[in-house]
Design brief:
Structural class: mainly alpha
Number of helices: 9
Helix content: over 70%
Order of helices and strands: HHHHHHHHH
Radius of gyration: 18 Å
Strand content: under 5%
Largest sheet: none
Number of strands: 0
Shape: globular
Distance between the termini: 36 Å
Length: 165
C-alpha cells in the first residue's frame, strides 16, 4: 500500500471512530476533532513505519489519540480555559476496541495471577494510576505495589511467551 493510499484509508475508515473515541473522553466535539487532526498528522509523519507495521494501524491510531487526549487534559491551560471539560478514561469505562482486546487477551492472562498481583496490574495499567495511588487504594506500601507489579509482569511474560522465559 502506498503512502497516500494508507492516509486515505485512515481518513475514510478511522477518522469518525477516532473523533467519537476522543469525544467520549473529553465531552467536546470540536476539541475531539482537533485531537484527531493531530493524530492524523502524526500518522502522516510516521507513514513509513505504519506501512511496514506488523501490528494494527487502527490500534496505533487509537493509542496515539488516547495519549494526545491525556496530554491535553494534563496541560495547565486545559484546567483554566475550558471549565467543564473532563477526561473519562475509556480503558476503565467502556470502549469497543479496548473491550475486545481485554476480553480476548488480557482477562485470561490476568486470571492466572493471584488477586493481589492482578489488582496491582489493573490499577497501574488499565486504570493508568501511579504506584502511589495504587498503594493508597489497596492499602499497602508503595514498595509492595512495586514488588507485586514486577512479579506479576514476570509471571505474565512466562505465560504469554514461554519461549522467551
Amino acid at each position: 500500500m502506498s503512502r497516500s493510499e494508507l492516509l486515505g484509508t485512515i481518513m475514510r475508515e478511522y477518522r469518525d471512530g477516532l473523533v467519537s473515541y476522543a469525544e467520549k473522553m473529553l465531552g467536546d466535539h470540536g476539541l475531539a476533532e482537533d485531537i484527531v487532526q493531530e493524530t492524523i498528522i502524526r500518522a502522516w509523519r510516521n507513514i513509513d513505519r505504519l506501512i511496514g507495521m506488523e501490528g494494527s494501524v487502527r490500534g496505533w491510531l487509537f493509542t496515539v489519540t488516547r495519549h494526545l487526549v491525556i496530554d491535553w487534559v494534563r496541560k495547565p491551560h486545559a484546567r483554566r480555559e475550558f471549565i467543564g471539560v473532563t477526561y473519562n478514561d475509556p480503558v476503565c469505562g467502556t470502549d469497543a476496541t479496548e473491550a475486545v482486546h481485554d476480553a480476548l487477551v488480557t482477562r485470561p492472562l490476568l486470571g492466572r495471577l493471584s488477586p493481589e498481583h492482578r489488582a496491582v496490574l489493573v490499577h497501574i495499567y488499565l486504570c493508568d494510576r501511579s504506584i502511589k495511588e495504587t498503594a493508597c487504594i489497596l492499602g499497602v506500601p508503595a514498595g509492595t505495589v512495586k514488588s507485586r507489579q514486577h512479579n506479576a509482569l514476570r509471571k505474565l511474560r512466562a505465560v504469554a511467551c514461554p519461549e522467551a522465559a
